[in-house]
Amino acid sequence: DDNPSDWPQHGRTAFEQRFSPLDQINTRTIGRLGLAWHQDFDTSRGQEGTPLIVDGVMYVTTSWSKVEALDAATGRVLWRHDPAVPGGVAVRGCCDTVNRGAAYWDGRVYVGTFDGRLIALDAKSGRLDWSVNTIPHDATLGDIRSYTIDAAPRIAKDVVIIGNGGAEFGARGFVSGFDARTGRLKWRFFTVPAPGNQPDHAASDNVLSSVAYKTWSPTGGWTHSGGGGTVWDSIVYDPVTGLVYLGVGNGAPWNYKFRSNGEGDNLFLASIVAIRPETGEYVWHFQETPKDQWDFTASQPMMVLDLPVQGRMRHVLVQAPKNGFFYTLDARTGAFISAIPYTFLNWAKGIDPKTGRPDIVPDALWSLTGRTWFGIPGSLGGHNWAPMAYSPQTGYVYIPAQQLPEPFKADDHMRLHDMGVNLGIDMSGLPADPKVLAAVGKTVQGWLLAWDPVAGKAAFRVQHDTPWNGGVLATAGGLVFQGLATGGFEAYDARTGARLYHFDAHSGIVAPPVAYAVHNRQYVAVEVGWGGIFPLMGGALARMRNDSVNHSRLLVFALDGKDRLPADSRPVQTLADGVGSFEPERARRGYVSYQHFCMACHGDNAIAGGVLPDLRWSGALGSPDGFYSIAGMGALKNFGMVGFSSVLKPQEIEDIRQFLISRARHDAALGEDKK
Ligand SMILES: O=C(O)c1cc(C(=O)O)c2c(n1)C(=O)C(=O)c1cc(C(=O)O)[nH]c1-2
Ligand SMILES: [Ca+2]
């Protein structure tokens, strides 16, 4: 914390509290806050990056893992680096081609690329120092299917640590540690055992065979799908304990019965695992959600705090994972301290106060009951990846919390596909009936939640219009900053939640703001760009009370800032001329294929959330051949839209086109176009 002007690490300091000690912008001066400068990005997909600021230079990462170095006072571009991620890789990621940020260490900038590389750039020139493939195609990795990187690397003791995503498709989670100078692999830690419990010659060998393997059915589907457990976002290095904490993700596939024959807790899924940065050696683990079948990742951002617990100061690790409980663990030992619901949840009756193990509601085990479970939280969690912040002034943790219920029902004909997601869940989404949508819409909520981690309860909640809001920044000016899904950039009084500032950013914000200073002038910067999984997949829910589109840019605020954004523009979408007709039976079949292969990006039931094309209004709908050239043959592959001819027959792709026409005609009749 020697350098209050900088934001040199992902969560500013190693403890990742996202608190800036700067106070020039404060509850008294906030009325003078204005846009100082902005800078457009050259991509129009989700922006989730945390900018780093070191000695007056800002390092930002954008969608497709691109990197820019800017003069942090003026926005002048110093260098740009495009790692040229092939467009077709987009389809290997569940959740947009986002990137959450770089790591800086000793004159180098480290970035994980969406296609699985870790690159080290010279911080002065942007020149590539080294590049390694973190996902080697060797036998130890089990089924190599869908590994992508969107998380920020972390640095601990001269080791760069990075994981990956992919558990919605099929992946076996692991993290790797590379020598920060040379890029040489030092160790690898797998989070899930090898299919036959054979050694990987990795740091995880002992603990996997002695502890984890017996928590899996030896004949479960995981032996083909990899089991999941991807470390796709949070990794925290704690210099006080010398440990690295890994936030481990969900099971692959989600369906626990298919995955593990309905047996065992499936370690280390949905767990926090502590390892040593020098060797990758296992130290402790804590499983938050045994038998995961709700995508209840423990990969949500973690932070380290020193807090009084029953009158005694403890060095703790806290997390508000998807499953709805706020966890406090002893950082050195992993010992369970508490887990308290931070949002409404219905999957567990409570938590064993000694062990921290949840008492799971039997009906919630949808893969075993065969019945539909209306789960709260749903798979997007009570809190997803958007970072929380802590203010030592108030003692509150500020959580971008949400409520997004979801029906879970087993797919009785589960088989593993080569393309598209592999969840083992019935993929039907919401009906198009506006009455049903309105009813479901009422359950969909978003808040800025000020959580008192000592008292174990909410201090206050700021109600937002929608879920999927941005990450949070707390500052010594007594302020909390957050961007919103609906495009507002807001500042709140950290004590009361009173809104003190609003700026219309013209596009949903999901990224977390940062604060820094150059020449004694304080700035607050945030990446703008609606995206991530919710607007891609969310369908009607993502459009509820929100017409956000993606305009990707960096906004930088300061006192007396005078810059302005160009006029807002939203595309006008109408039924394409000559869109043609459809056969109801073909459209019905097309719906099933659409939900399986297209929905994850273009939205549930063909309603897109403002980032990727809404296919109801696609100009390609009128031409069977044109549509096939894109959806079958991959004419738009360089933009991230691959062809599906290897998994869908031409007539199945034509069924999808007819389904989209049926949806366009239905919704145009409801007056849904032109929005
Ligand atoms: O299981 C995984 O491997 C994995 C990866 C990712 C990712 O890499 O972004 C997400 C998720 N899961 C996930 O469950 C999730 O809700 C999610 C949201 C986002 C996002 O960036 O908006 N990514 C991911
Ligand atoms: Ca997941």
What does this 3D model show about the protein?
With 675 residues, this protein is of the alpha+beta class. The chain has eleven helices and 39 strands. The strands form eleven sheets. A five-stranded mixed sheet has the order 1-33-34-35-36, with no helix packed on it. A four-stranded antiparallel sheet has the order 2-39-38-37, with no helix packed on it. A four-stranded antiparallel sheet has the order 3-4-5-6, with no helix packed on it. Helix 10 (624-631) packs across helix 11 (650-669). The N and C termini lie far apart (48 Å). The model has no long low-confidence stretch (mean pLDDT 95).
Mean pLDDT: 95
The strand line-up of the biggest sheet is 1-33-34-35-36
Q: Bin the helical content.
A: 10-25%
- Contiguous low-pLDDT stretches (5 residues minimum) are none
Biggest β-sheet, characterized?
A: 5 strands, mixed
The tally of beta strands, per DSSP, is 39
- Distinct ligand kinds: pyrroloquinoline quinone, calcium ion
The number of distinct helices, counting runs of at least 4 residues, comes to 11
Q: For the record, give the distance between the C-alpha atoms at the N and C termini, rounded to a whole number.
A: 48 Å
* Multimerization status: single chain
Structural class: alpha+beta
Strand content: 25-35%
* Integer-rounded radius of gyration: 23 Å
Q: What would you call the shape?
A: globular
